[in-house]
Amino acid sequence: MKILNSFSPNPRMLRMFLAEKNLKIDMVEHYLIAGKNQESVYLNKNPCGQMPALELDDETVLAETVVICDYLEELYPTPSLIGTNAQERAEARMWNRRIEQKITGNIYD
Length: 109
Ligand SMILES: N[C@@H](CCC(=O)N[C@@H](CS)C(=O)NCC(=O)O)C(=O)O
Known about the structure:
It is built from four helices and four strands; from the N terminus they run βαβαββαα. The chain has 109 residues and is an alpha+beta fold. The chain has a four-stranded mixed beta sheet with strand order 2-1-3-4. Helix 1 packs parallel to helix 3. Bound molecules: glutathione. Glutathione binds next to helix 1.
């Protein structure tokens, strides 16, 4: 699998997640300023045209940073960054959702 990466905040969150987990996954760089995310090559993989995305070996493309982190946590549960049981995971997801809806969403707007 490989990460479709760029320098921007959401890919950075994913890179931090990988670093904390000590995971090495190949990255393909996309230069957002040059609009690489709006070219058909990328839109065919992720019609939302946003970074990051995770392309699996069967060419399935997963987008949405939190979803990619959830997927990697399931594949590589140790060290746990999201939680080791249902309650811990629910708490982590609750805080992440609050941060996205009440903080970072406003920053982007
Ligand atoms: N909901 C997406 C948002 C991803 C996102 O907004 N990525 C930005 C970079 S941080 C992007 O690709 N912006 C370019 C664009 O929207 O055209 C996620 O959580 O991954």
